[in-house]
Amino acid sequence: QVQLVESGGGLVQAGGSLRLSCAASGRTFSSYAMGWFRQAPGKEREFVGGISWNGGSTYYADSMKGRFTISRDNAKNTVYLQMNSLKPEDTAVYYCAALQRRTGWVPSVKTEYSYWGQGTQVTVSS
Predict the structure, then answer these.
(1) Burial status of residue 75 (CB atoms within 10 A of its CB: 0-12, 13-18, 19 or more)
(2) pLDDT in tens, 95-109
(3) What is the distance in angstroms between the CA of the first residue and the CA of the last residue of the chain?
(4) Most-buried pick from 8, 20, 26, 124 (CB within 10 A)?
(5) What span, in angstroms and rounded, lies between the C-alpha atoms of 110 and 94?
(6) pLDDT band at residue 1, thresholds of 50, 70 and 90?
(7) Rounded to whole angstroms, how far apart are CA atoms 113 and 18?
(8) Contact, 82 vs 71, CB < 8 A?
(9) 65-83 per-position pLDDT tens digit
(10) Which of 90, 118, 117 is nearest to 32 (CA)?
């Protein structure tokens, strides 16, 4: 069982940056691949990116490549989402999710993930 708590959301101007954190409970955090997803009003929850259990592999949705960076610190049971060059269309609730998997592959399909945080709001003003 893993419990996830996101933080770091807020209001930022276009072109600005935010770093989201996702803190996980439990002693087996390093056994989990982690994903970040987002959901804008009236839209489906979409994959932002993910990181493998040991941080050796990262994946990003095409629209986030070059702007977003995912990292993790297994000693702190935390995964991060650094977001730069933010755009108004990045406005959404951002969720982290966990999947018990110790391979290099991180799925982009939300139904693959077993545990979810409550989300944190990111609002980008123009």
Answers:
(1) exposed
(2) 999 999 898 899 999
(3) 40
(4) 20
(5) 13
(6) confident
(7) 24
(8) yes
(9) 999 999 999 999 999 999 9
(10) 117
Q: What is the token pair recorded at 24?
A: 């996980």
Reduced 3-state DSSP string for the chain: CCCEEEECCEEEECCCCEEEEEEECCCCHHHEEEEEEEECCCCCCEEEEEECCCCCCEEECHHHCCCEEEEEECCCCEEEEEECCCCHHHCEEEEEEEEECCCCCCCCCHHHCCEECCCEEEEEEC
Q: How many CB atoms within 10 Å of residue 27?
A: 7
Quote the tokens at residue 99: 């999947």
> Which residues, in sequence order, are CB contacts of 65 under 8 Å at separation 6+?
none
Query: How many Å apart are CA 124 and CA 74, to the nearest integer?
Result: 30
| pLDDT (0 to 100) of residue 27 | 74
* Placement of tokens 């803190």 in the chain: 23
Tell me if 32 sits within 8 A of 116, measured CB to CB.
no
